[in-house]
């Protein structure tokens, strides 16, 4: 019955802090839950604009957009950690309006962005302390395909000062091929480490097959500077596919779940504010089973333990 597993790292065990561990439990998750981003089966797109949303209603989306215009619910089989008739997957889309206006800075006309962030993230909360694991499942929408001539970041963890990210999932054609020299097939998901490390460190990559759910988990040791990657498809239990490896995890910050599309253009341009974006786009990715758990004692949920 129990298909969850725990893994213990000798080094982490030796350094395990005596901090109080949150004991919040949630169905199908065997470790203490710090953020349960699985949305109720009855959730509507407009609910993402409300203060009651599990995700921050204000960030990050186009200046003149509401989440109602960004989120949709295409018919889809449940993801690994979604609970049939209780929680459901959702699609995050980008279009020509998906141009973000950061506080006090010019419009980010180089990018197209729609990313959900946990409403409880404030840069220093419990999700960026000790050792925590970030879970999500993702898959393509054949009706809203991406343009793999561009580079996308469909998941990342940005530092609290917005200057860097501890880990980033990348997809598509790297804007700077030298920065991501391991990529030969653009339609490949790559889990990369700290973005200020150049060229970037790619810990694991896998073809982005349209026909399956891709289940991911990334375990971050916030003070031990370790990173592990877990992966499976459809309803298979997560397997450790990389790590624990060194990664500089300084900086806390926020978990981003959604699309960031880079422009194309010559190396050296300011990608945030310049470059080429074709118009008339209608692109999206489907996400499910988003949660963050406390892995202080080496605990990582690899499969739901409840029988649905
Ligand atoms: C939602 O929160 C924002 C920021 O705290 C506040 O300005 C706004 O009045 C709140 N809206 C509702 C409907 O409570
Ligand atoms: C949003 O609307 C304002 C007012 O019409 C306009 O100045 C601005 O350029 C729009 N932003 C985007 C990203 O289209
Ligand atoms: C962030 O959230 C944590 C936990 O809720 C809280 O203890 C802390 O004071 C918050 N920090 C800021 C800067 O608001
Ligand atoms: C995909 O992106 C490339 C590079 O920006 C662009 O030339 C091409 O027109 C785009 N394709 C589609 C179908 O929009
Ligand atoms: C492209 O990536 C390489 C390798 O990381 C780096 O040395 C170079 O500075 C980057 N080029 C630009 C223009 O950012
Ligand atoms: C991690 O990066 C920060 C910020 O760039 C730097 O100050 C620190 O020395 C780095 N730590 C390690 C262990 O490399």
Automatic annotation (TrEMBL):
Keyword Signal: yes
InterPro entries found in the cross-reference section: GH131_N
Annotated keywords: Signal
Domain Glycoside hydrolase 131 catalytic N-terminal, residue spans: 33-298
Keyword Thylakoid: no
UniProt signal peptide: 1-22
Name this polypeptide is given: Glycoside hydrolase 131 catalytic N-terminal domain-containing protein
């Amino acid at each position: 019955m129990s298909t969850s597993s725990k893994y213990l790292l000798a080094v982490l065990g030796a350094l395990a802090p005596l901090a109080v561990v949150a004991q919040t439990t949630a169905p199908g998750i065997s470790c203490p839950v710090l953020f349960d981003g699985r949305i109720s089966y009855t959730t509507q797109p407009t609910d993402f604009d409300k203060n009651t949303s599990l995700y921050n209603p204000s960030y990050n989306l186009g200046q003149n957009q509401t989440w109602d215009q960004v989120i949709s619910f295409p018919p889809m089989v449940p993801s690994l950690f979604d609970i049939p008739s209780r929680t459901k997957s959702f699609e995050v889309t980008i279009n020509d309006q998906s141009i973000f206006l950061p506080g006090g800075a010019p419009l980010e006309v180089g990018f197209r962005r729609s990313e959900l962030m946990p409403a409880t993230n404030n840069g220093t909360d419990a999700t960026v302390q000790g050792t925590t694991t970030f879970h999500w499942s993702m898959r393509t929408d054949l009706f809203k395909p991406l343009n793999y001539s561009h580079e996308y970041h469909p998941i990342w963890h940005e530092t609290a000062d917005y200057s860097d990210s501890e880990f980033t999932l990348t997809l598509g054609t790297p804007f700077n091929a030298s920065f991501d020299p391991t990529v030969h097939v653009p339609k490949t998901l790559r889990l990369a480490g700290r973005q200020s490390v150049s060229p970037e460190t790619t810990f694991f990559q896998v073809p982005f097959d349209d026909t399956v759910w891709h289940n991911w988990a990334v375990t971050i040791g916030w003070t031990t500077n370790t990173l592990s990657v877990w992966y499976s498809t459809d309803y298979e239990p997560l397997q450790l596919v990389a790590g624990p490896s060194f990664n500089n995890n300084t900086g806390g910050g926020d978990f981003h779940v959604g699309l960031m599309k880079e422009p194309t253009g010559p190396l050296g341009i300011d990608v945030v504010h310049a470059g080429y974006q074709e118009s008339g786009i209608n692109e999206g990715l489907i996400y499910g089973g988003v949660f963050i758990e406390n892995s202080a004692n080496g605990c990582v949920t690899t499969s739901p333990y409840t029988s649905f």
